[in-house]
# Entry
Amino acid sequence: MNGTVFIIVTSIILLAAFALGWFSYWVLHRFTRVQGGDMAEMDRMAQSLHEAEETRDQALIYLESREGELMSQVAQTEAELRAAMDGLREARQEAEEMRSYIERMHAQN
# Structure
C-alpha cells in the first residue's frame, strides 16, 4: 500500500467517524431535548394551562349563578303573568256581570 492510498483510506475512515459521531450527537440531542430551556417552556405552558383551567372554572361558576338568577327571574315573571291573567279574567267577568246587570235594568224600565 503506497502513501496516497493510505491517506485516502485514512481520510475516508476519519470522515465516516466524524459523520457517525455527528449523527449520534444529533440523535442523542433529539431524544434528550426536554432539558434546560425546553423545561422552562414546559413549566410556562403548564402554568398557562393551570390559569386557563382556573378561568374556565370561574366562568362555569359565574354561568351557573347567572343561570340561577335568570331562572328565578323567569319564574317570578311567570307568576306575575299568571296573577295578571287572573286579574284580567276577573275584571272581564265583572265587566260582563255589569253589562248584564245594566241590560236587565234597561229591560225593566
